[in-house]
Write a structure and sequence with these properties.
alpha/beta; about 40% helix; 15 helices; 7-stranded parallel beta sheet; about 375 residues
């Protein structure tokens, strides 16, 4: 039996789970929530439901993590012994809990580092990086990562960050992806999302996803403020999160900003395809410890991409290497506005970025999910 552990299962991880089931493995998924996507979890997978991740506040985040790992600990102690465990750093303490029980039950386990903690807490401003808890967490990482059979992460820069805890030869890279048959460019004039929100003939700048504390979305609001007189440009924020209320307050009275909730699985691909420019953010300090999965979704939709992120991030390297848009450092709304205005006025440059973006996305497809199965030599 293969046990996969992820408190918040996004469509990319659903592909990983299904890849094991499709390979004929007895597959179980221990999760708090499964985010709907184009492809559901296979009926061959046994799902064990636990506490969902709650990011509405710092307290709710830590509470939901604690309740999840408590349930997971007792489940792992008493469940049928897995042949392998694949545990994601969501919640971040789950790999440590896995190492404790796996050592006792003699189970090989593999850690998928989607986000590196405690460094991610420092980036979010929740840790100074010098306290006892931070140093203890780093010590636990060294203990846990060395006992794992292997580690998987998402990019070369993330591999470098993880290698402070364990020999780099133990770390493999499997890039994330998007379902390029589900998310794809579509004709805007017949797009039901475009029609519903009266966006025909508009130049659409889209941010879709979590509006978290580390995301510099204030710069995007600032760019919208500077482009208020450009009547053909509209800024669309889709999603929610800790910064939503602040962003709505900052943009009160702006006619060129539209806030919408998360879209369901049916409307989501139409929402992505309605845009011309996709915004992807990464907070300072996150350049070596995270690659936003929305990068690949924006690419699959064939959007020109503007990043708001530190100069030396993996995210910026993807954008610049593939020639799919521009990279802007945090807190530069003027430059952000300049790039948006330029693209809205230069259709040939916009189309070049959009074409390159879609073509680049075909290097990051759901075929990558099978690499997880191959990694375990199953």
């Amino acid at each position: 039996m293969i046990l996969l552990v992820n408190q918040h299962t996004v469509p990319v991880f659903t592909d990983v789970v299904n890849a094991f089931a499709n390979a004929g493995q007895d597959t179980r998924l221990f999760t708090g929530h499964i985010e709907p996507g184009n492809v559901p979890v296979s009926n061959a997978v046994r799902i064990v439901k636990s506490r969902a991740y709650d990011r509405t506040s710092t307290f709710s985040r830590f509470l939901s993590w604690s309740l999840f790992v408590t349930h997971y600990f007792f489940y792992l102690v008493f469940c049928k012994k897995p042949a392998h465990i694949i545990v994601v750093t969501n919640p971040p303490i789950a790999p440590f809990i896995t190492s404790l029980v796996a050592r006792w039950r003699n189970i090989p386990f593999h850690i998928v580092v989607f986000d590196l903690y405690p460094e991610a807490l420092q980036q979010a401003g929740l840790s100074s990086g010098t306290g006892w808890l931070f140093r203890k967490w780093q010590s636990n990482n060294r203990w846990t990562f060395r006992r794992a059979a292997s580690l998987i992460t998402l990019s070369e820069s993330m591999k470098n960050a993880v290698s402070q805890y364990v020999d780099a030869g133990k770390i493999s890279i499997i890039f994330n992806w998007a379902d390029t048959s589900y998310i794809r460019p579509l004709e805007k004039q017949s797009n039901p999302f475009t029609i519903k929100h009266n966006m025909q003939g508009k130049f659409v700048v889209l941010y879709s996803g979590n509006m978290g504390l580390t995301h510099d979305l204030e710069s995007l609001v600032g760019a919208a403020e500077k482009l208020k007189r450009a009547s053909n440009i509209i800024f669309v924020f889709i999603g929610g999160g800790a910064k939503l209320n602040k962003l709505q307050s900052l943009s009160a009275g702006y006619d060129n900003i539209l806030f919408l909730p998360y879209q369901d699985a049916t409307m989501f691909p139409f929402a992505m395809a309605a845009a011309d420019v996709g915004i992807v953010t990464l907070g300072t300090g996150g350049e070596g410890i995270s690659v936003p999965s929305k990068t690949y979704i924006n690419m699959a939709a064939g959007l020109a991409i503007i990043t708001i992120s530190p100069a030396d991030s993996e995210l910026n390297r993807i954008v610049q290497h593939s020639s799919i848009g521009y990279a802007v450092a945090p807190n530069q709304p003027e430059l952000l506005a300049d790039h948006i205005l330029f693209l809205s006025s230069n259709p040939s440059e916009l189309q070049k970025f959009k074409t390159n973006s879609r073509e680049a996305s075909l290097n990051f497809t759901s075929a990558n999910a099978k690499k997880y199965v191959d990694h375990l030599n199953l």
